[in-house]
Structure formats: structure tokens, C-alpha cells
Design brief:
Length: 118
């Protein structure tokens, strides 16, 4: 799946209203929850599906969020999905990492429950 197909998939299949690749976040007038996803433009359909399932499991719906892939904007994000997260309070394993090591799913779930999304 190429980048354009993935963007179409996120917007038209999953219903996500905004995807912000590197350096494209402007001064939009929305108050969506910003979520950083490392390597988002290269996600497969399986990884994208898992990302959306994980977010839905903690009550975040597609119309409530914007996904960011620009590392320079990560500090603005409420949650950071990283391939190799540290012990940071808002850093969790990415869906890509969870697919490679399913044991990361439980740790990510526990950590996500502690993050206040309001």
C-alpha cells in the first residue's frame, strides 16, 4: 500500500479526518487530540487497523484526533506511539512494535489507561 492509498484508507475507511505528515501541521481551528505515530506514512493496513483499535479501546474516536508523524511536533502530542518507547509517561509501543512482539500489547494497554485524554 503506497502513501496515497494509506491516506485514503485512514480517511475514507477508518474515518480519520486529519493526518499530518512531517511539517504540515498549521494553525487549523480544531481542537482534536494530537497523537504522534512514529513512521506512520509507512504503516500497513494491519498496523493502521491495530492503531485505530487501540485508540478506540481507550475511547478515542477518529473524529476526535489528528495523527502526527513529524518528530519536531511530538512535544505537542498527548500520546506518542514509538517503535522503541522509553519510560516516558505518554510513550507507548507502536502498533508496528506490538505486531512484532505481542507481549507489548498488555504493557501499552496499561500505560494508555493511565494517560488522561481530556
Amino acid at each position: 500500500m503506497n502513501h496515497l492509498d494509506l491516506k485514503d484508507y485512514f480517511q475514507n475507511v477508518l474515518g480519520l479526518q486529519a493526518i499530518y505528515p512531517a511539517a504540515s501541521l498549521g494553525t487549523e481551528a480544531h481542537q482534536e487530540l494530537l497523537i504522534f505515530v512514529e513512521n506512520l506514512p509507512t504503516y500497513t493496513k494491519v498496523e493502521a487497523d491495530l492503531l485505530m483499535k487501540v485508540l478506540a479501546s481507550i475511547g478515542i474516536e477518529p473524529d476526535q484526533m489528528s495523527l502526527i508523524s513529524d518528530p519536531a511536533r511530538r512535544q505537542d502530542c498527548k500520546i506518542s506511539f514509538l517503535d522503541s518507547p522509553s519510560e516516558g509517561e505518554t510513550e507507548v509501543s507502536s502498533p508496528r512494535a506490538m505486531n512484532l512482539d505481542p507481549s507489548l500489547k498488555k504493557r501499552a494497554w496499561v500505560k494508555l489507561q493511565k494517560i488522561s485524554i481530556t
